[in-house]
Design a protein that fits this description.
With 159 residues, this protein is mainly alpha-helical. The protein has two domains: 1-71; 92-159, Arc Repressor Mutant, subunit A (Orthogonal Bundle). The chain has nine helices and no strands. This is SigE family RNA polymerase sigma factor. Residues 11-72 form the RNA polymerase sigma-70 region domain. Residues 98-150 form the RNA polymerase sigma factor 70 region 4 type domain.
């Protein structure tokens, strides 16, 4: 597969992933652009990988996690989405829930990425572990902590 074909086939999916982990459309576009730029630089190596998309997805996730570690990084859920700028997706109705955005914003970057990769990207623990460079048991522990935090958040809003 040539790079241009990959971008046509998977570019919007990368933007959606970036949006889902960051909660910000402009940041999502930046994440996708950075991931594609890095993939382009080593495209010969990327296209030879067993799963080139997995390789590029890992670049995007690592860039997001790196962004969250920088001092200048601030994150706030978007108040309202511009329908002209979003990509239609069946999961959008769930993801755009204001309560969900607030709850996800309360998680650490790694917890958020684990939940997005598990429930939005439908990846197994081994694949998530590979994307993050951690052990599958760490993925399960992180997901468990994140879900417990979401449950506590939900309970505190319903009391």
């Amino acid at each position: 597969m040539e790079f241009e074909e990959y971008v046509s086939a998977r570019g919007q999916e990368l933007v959606r992933l970036g949006f889902t982990v960051s909660g910000d459309y402009q940041r999502a576009e930046d994440l996708a652009q950075i991931a594609l730029m890095q993939a382009f630089r080593s495209w010969r190596k990327v296209r030879k990988a067993d799963d080139p998309h997995h390789y590029v997805r890992r670049i995007l996730v690592n860039e997001y996690l790196s962004m969250t570690r920088r001092r200048s990084f601030t994150e706030a859920p978007t108040a309202e989405l511009d329908p002209q700028r979003t990509v239609p997706d069946p999961a959008t109705a769930v993801v755009n829930s204001d309560d969900l955005w607030r709850a996800l914003a309360g998680l650490s970057a790694r917890e958020r990425v684990v939940l997005v990769l598990r429930y939005y990207q439908d990846l197994d623990d081994r694949t998530i572990a590979d994307v993050l460079g951690i052990k599958p048991s760490s993925v399960r522990a992180t997901a468990s902590r994140a879900l417990a935090t979401l449950r506590r958040t939900r309970q505190s809003h319903h009391v």
